[in-house]
Amino acid sequence: xxxxxxxxxxxxxxxxxxxxxxxxxxxxxxxxxxxxxxxxxxxxxxxxxxxxxxxxxxxxxxxxxxxxxxxxxxxxxxxxxxxxxxxxxxxxxxxxxxxxxxxxxxxxxxxxxxxxxxxxxxxxxxxxxxxxxxxxxxxxxxxxxxxxxxxxxxxxxxxxxxxxxxxxxxxxxxxxxxxxxxxxxxxxxxxxxxxxxxxxxxxxxxxxxxxxxxxxxxxxxxxxxxxxxxxxxxxxxxxxxxxxxxxx
Length: 248
Description:
Layout: H1 2-30, H2 36-42, H3 45-85, H4 92-98, H5 104-117, H6 129-149, H7 152-184, H8 189-243
Helix pairs in contact: 3-7, 3-8, 4-5, 5-6, 5-8, 6-8, 7-8
């Protein structure tokens, strides 16, 4: 019985200690002087400006990545539609009518068909049909390629500059730490912990912004290549069809 009472008493003491530690941890979490809230509240205009730039870069990166992903999926769906509908039509004009109005493949087919029908006028009489259609299809391909590449330059810029922006915030935080040491005359932990914490947060934010941008850029460029290949393949086949006289 004495052993049982001693065990219960010991368990109660440990439980009370655990509650006290938990409460202390919650208070420390709420009053953490080294978190993002403290960085924003205690930082100067340079630190806040750096933080805002990194946040805007991150938002822009995720927005462009999501938009480009849906745009590429749309191109892949349009390529499937062209294979199933366009090439089974009896003429180019009827195949164009079967494609969706905003389809990139319909745009290419319309440009090629227009070039084939308008060849031989006074302005184009000295240009052979093959070169004229090929030039029109190439212009259409370049237009589609420019649309696919839109926004990727931003991802590349963020991926290459975000670490250095975070490093700038790191250097600024270390400068604050050295300034605090110089003012206080001693390197006590309470004087340098805040600025050093600010520096580490800036470093982490710079990497957190740069890594998704680099990965997203490489992934989207690879998917863009697949989409561009399907567009070029469609253009080449259409070129042959228009030269063969199957333009309805």
